């Protein structure tokens, strides 16, 4: 499933410019760091987050225009997101991302960690240059949320007693925080009222949670193409996500496989088969739909215009990746 070009028609040129600017913005003086950063951005990606930011900008400015600050925010957010992926890939020992070799696989772990740190530092510098303290505070908090999410995930590996509430909190820190903060920051840059900022934050928060839950379902049933990374990797690493948590409710045989950390040769395949035969995937999908509806409900409380329909489409697109 690909994004309709009609949805991106208002922002297509801006997304093309964004791709060009990203390579300029990460112009590291050190050739290894530059090569690592260039390798990342050459891999592309759907640029979902920048697209959402630009659409929120169109939805909230008085003349439905995108300000230079909005464009820079979209670039900053994509750099932050990419930096988090570099670190994620090291932690998860992921060998491919977006169809290309990961940075730590192409270079080494040390270079990957430094490249991720460099990207975070670059994004912070550009963020400060937006000269909007409120936006700086909101987006800076996201970077601490990433660390919180990674620590929580690391501390709960192979913990079959992990609760759904704990999973949602971790998902907020790892994914939803960035989208929520981005949407609110775009509304702030448009000089929107506090109520509009709040509703766009809620739109982004619930969209981010739905997005993560769908990603976690795809880890069980999807392919490398749909995920951008190998399927089953999260499960293998002991990250127990919504479909697994729900499956544990009616498939106690899963406990044994998890407790021995999938050490036997066919354990992962057995676990995936058990999860697929349970109600886990359907219940996880229902949970994603709940957050989708909460996202759209928040969106409906903002100013109604043509761009809002495109944001609605983006929300539905992200959840319908299963089909």
Automatic annotation (TrEMBL):
GO terms for biological process: isoprenoid biosynthetic process; quinone biosynthetic process. It comes from the Eukaryota. GO terms for molecular function: metal ion binding; prenyltransferase activity. SUPFAM superfamilies: Terpenoid synthases. Gene3D superfamilies: Farnesyl Diphosphate Synthase (1.10.600.10). Keywords: Chloroplast, Isoprene biosynthesis, Magnesium, Metal-binding, Plastid, Transferase. PROSITE patterns: POLYPRENYL_SYNTHASE_1 (PS00723), POLYPRENYL_SYNTHASE_2 (PS00444). The keyword Chloroplast applies. Its cofactor is Mg(2+). Belongs to the FPP/GGPP synthase family. PANTHER family: ALL TRANS-POLYPRENYL-DIPHOSPHATE SYNTHASE PDSS1, GERANYLGERANYL PYROPHOSPHATE SYNTHASE. NCBIfam families: prenyl_cyano. This is Prenyl transferase. It comes from Melanthalia intermedia. The gene is preA.
């Amino acid at each position: 499933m690909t994004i309709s070009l009609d949805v991106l028609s208002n922002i297509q040129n801006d997304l093309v410019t964004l791709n060009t600017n990203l390579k300029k913005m990460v112009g590291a003086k050190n050739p290894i760091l530059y090569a690592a950063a260039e390798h990342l951005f050459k891999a592309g990606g759907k640029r979902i987050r920048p697209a959402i930011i630009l659409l929120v900008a169109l939805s909230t400015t008085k003349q439905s225009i995108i300000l230079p600050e909005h464009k820079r925010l979209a670039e900053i957010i994509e750099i932050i997101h990419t930096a988090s992926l570099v670190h994620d890939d090291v932690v998860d020992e992921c060998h491919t991302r977006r169809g290309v070799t990961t940075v730590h696989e192409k270079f080494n772990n040390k270079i990957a960690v430094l490249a991720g740190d460099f990207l975070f530092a670059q994004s912070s510098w550009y963020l400060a240059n937006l000269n909007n303290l409120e936006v700086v505070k909101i987006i800076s908090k996201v970077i601490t949320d990433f660390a919180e999410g990674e620590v929580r995930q690391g501390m709960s590996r192979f913990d079959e007693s992990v609760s759904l509430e704990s999973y949602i909190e971790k998902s907020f820190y790892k994914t939803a925080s960035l989208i929520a903060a981005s949407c609110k920051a775009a509304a702030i840059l448009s000089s929107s009222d506090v109520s509009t900022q709040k509703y766009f934050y809620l739109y982004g928060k619930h969209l981010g949670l739905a997005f993560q839950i769908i990603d976690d379902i795809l880890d069980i049933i999807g392919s490398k193409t749909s995920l951008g990374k190998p399927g089953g990797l999260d499960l293998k690493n002991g990250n127990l996500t919504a479909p697994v948590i729900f499956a544990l409710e009616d498939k106690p045989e899963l406990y044994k496989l998890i407790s021995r950390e999938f050490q036997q040769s066919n354990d992962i395949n057995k676990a995936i088969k058990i999860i697929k035969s349970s109600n886990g995937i359907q219940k996880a999908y229902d949970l994603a739909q709940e957050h989708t509806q909460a996202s759209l409900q928040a969106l409906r409380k903002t100013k109604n215009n043509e761009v809002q329909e495109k944001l609605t489409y983006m929300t539905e697109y992200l959840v319908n990746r299963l089909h």
